[in-house]
Structures are given as C-alpha cells and as structure tokens.
Amino acid sequence: MTNDDLIHDPKGGMPRLLEIMRRLRDPETGCPWDIEQDFSTIAPYTIEEAYEVADAIERSAWDELKGELGDLLFQSVFHAQMASEKGLFTFDEVADGMSDKMVARHPHVFGDETRDKSAEQQTADWEAIKAAERAAKARGGVLDDVALGLPALMRAVKLQKRAARVGFDWPSTDEVIDKIVEEAQELREADDPAHQREEFGDLLFVMANLARHLKIDPEEALRAANAKFTRRFESIERALAEQGRTPKDSNLEEMDALWDAAKAQEKAG
Fold this sequence. Notes:
Blueprint: H1 3-7, H2 13-24, H3 32-36, H4 39-58, H5 62-85, H6 91-105, H7 107-110, H8 119-136, H9 152-165, H10 173-189, H11 193-213, H12 218-241, H13 252-268
GO molecular function, one term: nucleoside triphosphate diphosphatase activity
Region (Disordered): 242-269
Keywords: Hydrolase
C-alpha cells in the first residue's frame, strides 16, 4: 500500500493518522498553518481538547466523546511529529514509554504482587512508585516537577498533596477552615488592588486545600457550580420572557426572588 492509499484508507487506524500528520507538516507540500506551529503554539489547543473530552463526559454526550477523544489523540500525534522532526523522540517511543510506565506501576496486575489490596493501599503503592521514579530523575525539591502549565486550581491541589507527603499539612479540616476565615478577613482588610489580588489568591489556595482534605475535586465542584448557576439564571430568563421581558427590564430584587423559586423547584424535583 502506498502512502496515498494509506491516507485514504478508512480502516487505516493509527498508521493512517500518523501519516496524515507527517504530510501536514511536510515543509514542501504540507499545510502552511500546520508547518508554522511549534510546541508552545499547539499547547493551548491540547489543553482545550482535554477540557472538551471532560465536558462530553460530564454531559454524558457519548455520541460526541469519540470525536473529542480523536481530537485529543491528534494533539499527541502533533506534538510527537514535531518532536520527531527535531530528533527528540517518536510517537512509538511515546507509546512504548507509557506502556513501560503502566507495567511498572501495576505490579499487582503485570508482576508477582497480589491483587488482594484495598483501593487505599493501591493508591499508596502508586504514590510510592511515583516517588521512586522522581528520585531516579534526581529532582532537587519536593515540588520541583509539579507542572507549571496546569490550571492554577489543579496545580494548587497537586502542590499541597506533594507537601503533605513530607508532613507539611494541617491535621484536619478544622484548621483549614480556621485559615479560610483568617484569609477572608485579610482580604476584607486589603486596601489596594495589588494587596486584594494577593489575598484573594491566598483565599483560593486555602479553599483548594479544603477541597483536598474533603476529597473533593475543586475543578469538578466549580464546574458543577457553574452548571447550577447557568440553569438557575436561564430559569430567570424564561420566567421573565413569559412576561415579554428580559433581565435588563427587571431588577435585582425580582431576579433574586425568581432565583429562589428556581432553587426551590430544583430541590423539590
């Protein structure tokens, strides 16, 4: 089969996708936009596609999930092609590296360790293996390899988890909540924009810590809150539309009452 035959083969699978990516990046015959890209320009698209996968799952949009997973896979292929062009690594090496990692991190599946473990023990073993991998990379500090490019809220939780492993952590949620009260008061007392920004960041950071102590994913919790706000505000819009009005024709008192009605209806339902 020629490369052109592969590109047009509807059952070409992974080799087809890799060849398409190679052709898109061909400096003489490829797509000008694709040729211009580098790791830094593609990275935002990679993050966006990952969120679109999460969104499809959250909405149980299973008919969309296949396409979103394909978009995310294409991002990995794109980065691997650019790396291959620079002589850094190939897509096969990416796949082999991940396979090696999964085999090494699951000795209870692929090795001689017992599978008779609790979920908590498996998590502890996983973290111990990851810690050994980090030590082998000769990282200097406890926080050194927590990725800078993570969403800030997610990175806050990862930083706190890493610090907790060496004992830098509050023993219970009570101390975290006390710290939230303290940070809220400091925000109230902040008297200039720079100070307010700093104190607001501190408050968010402690809120992320509380989520970690409660075993809540703060990103997931905030997405749920966003969805709830959207539902209830749309309910306000519908109620006003029935009267031939929009939120601009209303006021806070009326909209707040409609909000409470939507809230009560959700709870009753």
